[in-house]
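README: folding subset

This subset contains proteins for which both the sequence and a predicted structure token string are available. Records are stored as plain text. Below is the entry for Magnesium transporter (290 residues), shown exactly as it appears on disk.
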Amino acid sequence: MVVPASGPARVEEAGKHAVMARTGLPARDLRVLDPLLSYPSTILGRERAIVVNLERVKALITAAEVLLPNSKDPAFARFVRDLQTRVLASSSDQAAELTDMEGESSVVASPFPVPSSSKGHEVEMTKKTTAVVPEMTSSSSMPNLAIAKDGNTKVLPFEFRALEVCLESACRSLEEETSTLEQEAYPALDELTSKISTLNLERVRQIKSRLVAISGRVQKVVSKFIDLLRVNLLSDLSMVRDELEHLLDDEMDMAEMYLTEKLTQQEISEASSRVEVDDPSQTEEDRQVS
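--- output ---
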């Protein structure tokens, strides 16, 4: 099954060589997704694709689509539905947010004096802005947008949205197994407390072995998630560093950022102009003296 970044999902039949040409992956990476082979949980980042093998989730993620080799598995159906829903919802939310941002960009608070004839329009636009902002902040369905403190909006790329769904599905699978194990563990412990026997001890031992196995799988998923966060953080820090270096190297850009100084100079200039208009006799005397 193929889940594109935009549009409905579709079922395609593709061989190994076709998938390799489509994703740029070598054959050894595709073996990670083979259901007949036992591979540990892993996330492989390659030049053109991300290979995901987390619990029941096996996927190939590119910048434009997600390839699901075992989409016919009944246990995999929920993940497919979640992925389709998230991709469609993210695309709709992204378009709506960008439209709202374009509409609001015309309403910007200005430090400069506003003519009296335009004050009525300014009040009306301010009311509209205050009505829109609470609506945006109260919205709970914004999975693909991260709003920074400066108000800028960072759109999460498609591949990371798809990877987020993969991680959520893996965590949900582990949570369900843990809940099932918990329902078996407490009665077994209670029974062992009331009656110590070989059968009860063996039952508790098996539950403990399953618990240790689940803990190991959880650690693998958590480590992959932490690695992903580390990569994203380093990428963001690198972008910030490059931008700061660019600003520091360009003196004109640095000078343009002194907004307070420019505003002060403008206020001084306006004050001087008002003095000349209010006291024309002083100006004439100055001219005679000169």
